[in-house]
Amino acid sequence: MASGSLGLGGVRPPQAAARHSSGLRLPVGGPQQARASSATSQTPALIDRLRNDPSRLALRPADPAFLERIASQLAAVADVSNAVSTLHGDDLEWPRWKDFCNNLMGTDEWRNDAAANNGTDVLGHEREVFLHAAYLLHRWNTMIPRSRASPAPKPASARSALNAVRRIHARAGHTTPATPAITRLVNGLCRMYVRAHGPYSLMPDRKEPLTTPIIRLMLAAPAGSPGGMRRRVNWLEVYFVSWRAFVLTTRHTGARKADLLDVVAAEFSAGSMTRANLKWRINGVVYAAPSDEMLRALKDGDAAVLIPSCCKNDPFGMHFGDSPIYLPVVVGDDTNAALALRDLELALPAPGALRPRLPLFAADASHTPMSHADADATFDALAKTTLDPAVAKTISLHSGRVWLACALFAARHAPGMIQRMVRWRSPESIAIYAHTEPDEYMRVIRSAIDMDVTSTLARNMRENGPVTDYDDAVASWAASSDEPGDGAQRQKAARAADAPPPAATASGGSAPDSAATARRSPPDPSVLARAGGVIARDDVTAGTAVAVVFDFDDGAAYPFRGDVVRVLRTSARVRFADGGTLDVAFNQLLRITGSYEP
After folding, report:
1. From 582's CA, which of 162, 228, 358, 401 has a CA 20 to 30 Å away?
2. pLDDT tens across 394-404, in order?
3. Which CATH class is domain 487-595?
């Protein structure tokens, strides 16, 4: 079937791997090359410095244009090294940083004095650390809280603003100074915040599960009711067929919104979720594009098969891409994701040859990719129309992921299996990936479908269940922590495996007998910290204050305070209080949320 007859005239398919006009083999994509905060904006100054380098090792290519060309290519690649959403946030922060530097501090926004940044120039280093700390405090004093319910902006928000500035400099090749002073500043702000607004004021707002009764009410919204973005509900229209399939898929896969949709339609690419990521297991045989007759004849035992694409904790599809998600068909279940995807296939056909070029979830009959704004607007509109306001404000599109974790917890599945189903990269879930057969996967999801999930169960899962998300789950290492995670499971999720605690931190003072044996005496509380969630990979830079958990032979686990001194490819080198260093995997670096309290 020709693409024109499918209404594909306005769709821009993913670009092929041909040489780009910049000379790169792949297109860098997006408008970010023109940003004031981009590495590209610094390329002319870099080229000028390289050309005027008087040293013996100066670069003198035979073709002078080659230097400019390769520098431009390097900058273009650096400018897309972070997720689009991260780049967007950085772009919003850069004008604020520039205004602060130019107008309040009377200095340049680009901090590229290497000697000052690395500490060789002591006075310059003091200046740079002061500037960063001053900006964080300035932003905290001037920013507006994200939530109307918050009495003041949270210190972590100001820290995120400074992190954006540091990322921008890093992409441009400028190493910013280490920030132990920033950590002390944030800790002080947090202490002041709690004293002013109470002990629960910094607790994150957790979404409740998208239970089966709730989603049924939302999907029963009458025709003509508000559907968000000036749409009116019509459950036979392509958009609403697609949205229904999307929201039900989030429940049965535990997917984040960004796992299935691009932020905006223009970001759709070969790395997005396409129709080629959806296959069908019918009578034990997997089909890439079954006929309409086969789809209409689906029965219990058949399944929709989703191939994961790039996602938040697997940005290049290297960990989950070869592990299909099997969504069982349950005939008669009006919330069944597989049948909703079948309805989408029938309402908006995608022939085999075109499937890699078409989004999995479309916003119209022309296969325009559904965006985050589309999905959120419809969810919010239906929630407001069909639910009690007190309930509507407790749920979001992330609630489907919460529901699956809660349902699997209620079905008494092992922590590793729950983490595997929601694709959290823990040691237990990685082990399970190696041997989960399709029938077993479908059995596990069926067991979740049959569970009655309540808000009480959701709270119990958060208090006693496994860590399931980089964003939402925070390990409860200190006794006073309110965050989710079972004790033994938390130790496995974030400890530095097979490594002793820092040599001089235990009060007993003697070295451990082996790497697997920790000290018998408890450590000095001054070298410990209250630990929160895993720090996002992009936020780990030299100078980042971290907590790393080590197991002790008395069965306890302690989070040791340290600072990142070097970022490696798969880990970070952390220096602890005794001056010793250890290379720690990124998923074992925890955020410091306060002082340790025994």
Report:
1. 162
2. 999 999 998 99
3. mainly beta
